[in-house]
Specification:
It is built from nine helices and ten strands. The chain starts with a strand and ends with a helix.
């Protein structure tokens, strides 16, 4: 099986604060991989390092065979990214933003592709609205589109469902499940444990920047364990170490 993400002893420090502390993980092609942890556990920093937006303090990582330190632009060119708090440019309409994305990524037939996404995520009535006037949920839809409209072989998403209502959460979960069936890979960070248990095929748990566990979800199911209970047991024990 091809490994699309390989991280070895990856660390990031901000002064005296160790945001990520010697994390080693690998993600195989076709996985829906969940990086789990409480707020402040280092999930966002991990995604930023894996997408070449933040330079590691130490350790190595490759994404789709590309080194995140020596060629961060090459990494971002290949993948789809949804940052935790990134928003589309306020001075563009939703459609103008997708045209900009298409120009940067050299995506043909953008009008046709964009229309499909506007219909699929049910915001066609917002295509000509300035991004600054869109609701948080609609901006999240637009960011989801920009990450997937070029059909990347790997997408990295920070909290994919955080601004969606229950109906749209269902739509997005189904889309992600179908996406990985095409031998594409999705890497999400989240603290929604029930969602991770439902859709992820493999996961890793971070706490205070340190890795506590990684493995396939089936391992837990075979033992009759549920991911939320397993997660809470590990993190609570680690708090007292």
């Amino acid at each position: 099986m091809t490994r699309v993400i390989e991280a070895r002893d990856l660390s990031k420090a901000y002064g005296d604060v160790q945001a990520v502390d010697h994390v080693t993980l690998s993600v195989e092609e076709g996985a829906l991989f969940g990086l789990l942890g409480p707020n402040g556990s280092g999930k966002t920093t991990m995604i930023r390092m894996l997408t070449g937006q933040t330079r590691p303090s130490s350790g190595t990582a490759t994404v789709l065979g590309t080194d995140v330190v020596t060629d961060p632009v090459g990494v971002r060119w290949q993948v789809g990214i949804i940052p935790e708090q990134e928003t589309p440019p306020s001075f563009l309409t939703a459609m103008e933003y997708l045209r900009f994305v298409a120009a940067v990524r050299r995506i043909p037939d953008i009008e046709k592709k964009a229309d499909w996404w506007f219909d699929f995520l049910d915001f066609a009535d917002k295509k000509d609205v300035l991004c600054k006037d869109l609701s948080r949920g609609t901006r999240q839809k637009l960011m989801f589109v920009q990450a997937f409209i070029h059909e990347p072989s790997l997408a990295l998403i920070d909290e994919p469902l955080i601004n969606f209502d229950p109906i749209m959460q269902d739509v997005v979960k189904d889309y992600l499940a179908g996406y990985v069936k095409k031998r594409r890979t999705v890497f999400i960070s989240t603290h929604f444990l029930e969602v991770a248990e439902e859709i992820c095929s493999a996961f890793a748990i971070l706490h205070k920047g340190r890795p506590l566990h990684s493995g396939p979800v089936t391992e837990l199911k075979e033992k009759g364990e549920h991911l939320p209970a397993f997660f809470l047991s590990l993190v609570r024990t680690d708090r007292h170490v």
